[in-house]
Amino acid sequence: MTTQNVAILFTDIVGSTELSQRLSPEVADEVRRSHFSILRQAVAEADGTEVKNLGDGLMVVFASTSAHSGARWRCNRASNRPTEPAERRSACAWG
Predict the structure, then answer these.
(1) d(CA 1, CA 17)
(2) Which DSSP category does 6 fall into?
(3) pTM for this structure?
(4) How far apart are CA 11 and CA 39, in angstroms?
(5) How far apart are CA 8 and CA 48, in angstroms?
(6) Counting beta carbons within 10 angstroms of the beta carbon of residue 68, is it exposed (0 to 12), middle (13 to 18) or buried (19 or more)?
(7) N or C: which terminus of the chain has fewer CB atoms within 10 Å of its end residue's CB?
(8) What angle do CA 84, 87, 93 make, to 5 degrees?
(9) Rounded to 5 degrees, what are φ and ψ at 18?
């Protein structure tokens, strides 16, 4: 049996329930779609693999911590655009 260390990234939208209550259903859905689009692009650029998504959260695995760091940096950079209404949170684990 072969084992390998991996990095796992977990993300979500901060305050998504409150955000969806403040926005119209159409706008809230667009925020969620934009969120996943930004994340999936960053994950693809860093050779990550989406394992699971639920609601506004995403779980991704990377073969290395450096690839994970690149994806996390891309996500953070994209989410800091002034036109982006949602704040993203992420956490990681590796081993």
Answers:
(1) 43
(2) -
(3) 0.72
(4) 9
(5) 9
(6) buried
(7) N
(8) 130
(9) -65, -40
